[in-house]
């Protein structure tokens, strides 16, 4: 393993470590429930997301040591393969990014349990990225198949996750603050812990905000469908009908700030992409690189971002600073796939292949891009990496990056070079991680 490869992978490991639920969940529970105010009586734990099962394990471990009088129970939904052991909280694995019946059944059980809360009970939400698809409980008249078709259409359209979630929360009986609405109607206290995978880290956007007041409207949801030309051919009639009824005031809006007057509802963002970028920056500094954090809100088409960051490298080299630099960024790109092309890979691998293709005049360049949840798009890798040695191997193998980009087949390109990042499920999720090492 070359020195650059080691640094790339260790920087990614540092980004993951600071978002590890085993570390951060107990820290925040001690702040929310300090000594003398620990939960007593019924404590219902519910949640959804790729990190939520590991959050539940961490919560149970903390409760065992610090909450002797709490009666713990609950249900948490996570993606297939992201299970974590628990004793009192049931873990249900379900479909992501396209919802399935297991997720809908689990969401129904969560809804039933919250509807049974009593005054004085505590509801703890464990929410992370991926929860929008997992916590699927459609409003009356919308089937799981209709939700699945809507999600698939939005995914193919290239709509960013924030816009996708505006549509989905207006179709949900749980998201858009509806879970908190149900709990406070029963007189319960709500404390939600959130691991953010969205730009801006707004609680309303993380897993479509089941416990947070929502800023968006039915009009916004319909505008998004119009923006991507998702008409009756792509979106089920039940979905369009529900959104139009909401616009007409025939269906209640999502939870708003005004609805929380006098309610005990708190949303705590306990991990963010930016904190992970800072951890990676601290690490590369020890390796002699000057870190430059480009932000955690880098979005757009993955291949366009790759080209833009290659231009940034070109600009830096023209300045001739002479210092080794590490450009670090986060955020969630999109990949728009034309009809007739299946593609293999995900947004991180596609960004990296675009960067690879656009930076061939920089032989010392090395880079890595990976999804912090451990799964990048359609395959089982977290992302990919390359170093000068990788570029040489690609040339020797006769691999032409432009051909793979055209077919959105970034997975096969990097697989042939043995340059995939393969972590398995990390049990956390703070969006995508990208790093470029530039040795001058």
Spatial order of the strands in the main sheet?
3-2-1-4-5-6
Percent in helix = 40-55%
Whole-number average pLDDT?
95
SSE string, helices as H and strands as E: HHEHEEHEHHHHEHHEHEHEHEEHHHEE
Quick overview:
The chain is an alpha/beta fold and 440 residues long. The chain has helices at residues 3-17, 21-32, 52-66, 101-115, 131-134, 144-157, 161-169, 178-185, 218-227, 237-247, 273-286, 302-319, 347-358, 388-397, 401-406, 410-416, and strands at residues 41-48, 70-79, 89-94, 122-128, 189-195, 265-271, 290-295, 325-331, 365-371, 383-386, 420-421, 432-438.
Description:
The chain has 440 residues and is an alpha/beta fold. It folds into two domains: 21-272, 3-Layer(aba) Sandwich (Rossmann fold), CATH 3.40.50.10180; 274-438, MOFRL domain (glycerate kinase, domain 1). The protein is built from 16 helices and twelve strands. The protein has helices spanning 3-17, 21-32, 52-66, 101-115, 131-134, 144-157, 161-169, 178-185, 218-227, 237-247, 273-286, 302-319, 347-358, 388-397, 401-406, 410-416; strands spanning 41-48, 70-79, 89-94, 122-128, 189-195, 265-271, 290-295, 325-331, 365-371, 383-386, 420-421, 432-438. The model has no long low-confidence stretch (mean pLDDT 95).
């Amino acid at each position: 393993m070359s020195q650059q490869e080691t640094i790339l992978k260790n920087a990614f490991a540092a980004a993951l470590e600071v978002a590890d639920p085993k570390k951060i969940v107990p820290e925040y529970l001690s702040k929310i429930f300090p000594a003398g105010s620990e939960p007593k009586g019924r404590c219902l734990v519910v949640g959804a997301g790729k990190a939520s099962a590991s959050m539940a394990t961490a919560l149970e471990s903390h409760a065992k040591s610090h909450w002797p009088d709490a009666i713990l129970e609950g249900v948490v939904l996570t993606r297939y393969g992201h299970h974590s052991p628990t004793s009192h909280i049931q873990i249900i694995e379900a479909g992501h990014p396209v919802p399935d019946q297991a997720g809908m059944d689990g969401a129904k059980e969560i809804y039933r349990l919250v509807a049974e809360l009593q005054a004085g009970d505590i509801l703890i939400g464990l929410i992370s990225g991926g929860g929008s698809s997992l916590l699927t409980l459609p409003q009356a008249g919308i089937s799981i198949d209709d939700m699945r078709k809507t999600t698939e259409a939005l995914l193919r359209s290239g709509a960013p996750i924030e816009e996708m979630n505006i549509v989905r929360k207006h179709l949900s009986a749980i998201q858009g603050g509806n879970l908190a609405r149900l709990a406070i109607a029963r007189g319960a206290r709500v404390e939600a812990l959130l691991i953010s995978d969205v730009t801006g880290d707004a609680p309303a956007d993380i897993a479509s905000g089941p416990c947070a007041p929502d800023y968006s409207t039915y009009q916004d949801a319909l505008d998004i469908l119009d923006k991507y030309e998702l008409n009756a051919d792509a979106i089920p009639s039940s979905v369009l009908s529900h959104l139009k009824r909401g616009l007409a005031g025939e269906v209640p809006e999502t939870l708003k700030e005004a609805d929380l007057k006098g309610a005990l509802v708190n949303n705590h963002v306990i991990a963010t992409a930016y904190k992970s970028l800072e951890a990676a920056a601290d690490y590369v500094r020890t390796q002699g690189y000057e870190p430059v954090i480009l932000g955690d809100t880098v979005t757009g088409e993955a291949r366009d971002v790759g080209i833009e960051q290659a231009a940034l490298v070109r600009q830096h080299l023209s300045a001739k600073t002479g210092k080794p630099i590490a450009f670090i960024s986060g955020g969630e790109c999109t990949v728009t796939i034309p009809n007739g092309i299946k593609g293999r890979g995900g947004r991180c691998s596609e960004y990296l292949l675009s960067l690879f293709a656009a930076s061939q005049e920089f032989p010392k360049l090395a880079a890595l891009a990976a999804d912090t949840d451990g799964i990048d798009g359609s395959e089982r890798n977290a992302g990919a990496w390359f170093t000068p040695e990788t570029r040489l191997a690609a040339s020797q193998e006769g691999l032409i990056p432009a051909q793979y980009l055209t077919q959105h087949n970034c997975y096969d390109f990097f697989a042939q070079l043995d340059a995939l990042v393969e972590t398995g499920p990390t049990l956390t999720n703070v969006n995508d991680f990208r790093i470029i090492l530039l040795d001058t």
